[in-house]
Amino acid sequence: MNVQGQAALVTGGGSGLGEAVARELARLGARVAVLDVNAAGAARVAAEVGGIACTCDITNADDVTAALDAAEAAHGPARILMNIAGIGTAKRVIARDGSPAPLADFERVVRINLVGTYNVIRLAAARMARLEGLDDGERGVIINTASVAAFDGQVGQEAYAASKAGVAGMTLPLARDLAQWGIRVNTIAPGLFATPLLQELPAEVQQSLASSIPFPKRLGLPAEFAALAAHMVANGHLNGEVVRLDGALRMAPR
């Protein structure tokens, strides 16, 4: 699918990888709706890329529906969905005092990263399915975000790894399910990236993290993630795939 002229939805577009994707899609000529629970971040990015900001909790069906309605009213029906929103956390199953980890913490991560991703997909895909097909009958493209933690989860990453493994695991079934509607589904599993969260760490910690990457020995750039996401939209034969973007990194146990 040619990005130019298409309406696109970017969840988590108010910062980090989502912001980079929103900027890249706008650069390529898409009409971008920035969906984020952070209203200020969404407004800032949307203003800078000439898009629309939609404050949205991806786990809330009413929120997502309202955001899709607002985006469609401004830009027309969206054929591109970039699911970037998510949270990260680490907590050992058994704390130092011997107490078990709170179940609510596990549930929150899975609800946002996995259930929230699926929630946006189901609502956006139903709209895409009603559109006229483009070349090859294509009606839409959905790109999700997993993590290398889906495959190499570290100590304390049970919730995060489980949620991202779920995103990776539903990629092929989603692609098969939505094939009849001409909607492709792919997932990117990023490694260590220079997002605002990581850049808050001390320089020596960032250096240590970067040194664990075989090559190139640096943190990934959000622009590199965005470039891959845009390529997945443009490459019409890429479907049902989970692509690691990690410089050949394989995470150690801790």
Question: What features would you describe in this structure?
Answer:
It comes from Ideonella margarita. This is SDR family NAD(P)-dependent oxidoreductase. Keywords: Oxidoreductase. 45% of the residues lie in helices and 15% in strands. The protein has 254 residues and is of the alpha/beta class. It has one domain: NAD(P)-binding Rossmann-like Domain (Rossmann fold). Helix 2 links the parallel strand 2 and strand 3. Helix 1 packs parallel to helix 2, helix 1 packs across helix 10 and helix 3 packs parallel to helix 4. The longest helix has 26 residues. The chain is globular. The N and C termini lie far apart (40 Å). 45% of the residues are buried. The mean pLDDT is 95.
Short descriptors:
alpha/beta; 10 helices; 7 strands; 7-stranded parallel sheet; single chain; globular; 254 residues; Rossmann fold
Number of domains: 1
What is the succession of H and E elements? EHEHEHEHEHHHEHHHE
Give the name of the CATH architecture.
Answer: 3-Layer(aba) Sandwich
Kindly report the oligomeric state of this protein: single chain
Distance between the termini: 40 Å
The CATH topology annotation reads as: Rossmann fold
Estimate the strand proportion: 15-25%
Q: What is the radius of gyration?
A: 18 Å
List how many beta strands DSSP finds. 7
Number of helices: 10
Overall pLDDT metric: 95
Main sheet: strands, sense, barrel: 7 strands, parallel
Q: For the record, what CATH class applies?
A: Alpha Beta
Going across the biggest sheet, name each strand in turn.
3-2-1-4-5-6-7
Determine the CATH superfamily.
NAD(P)-binding Rossmann-like Domain
Question: What is the helix content?
Answer: 40-55%
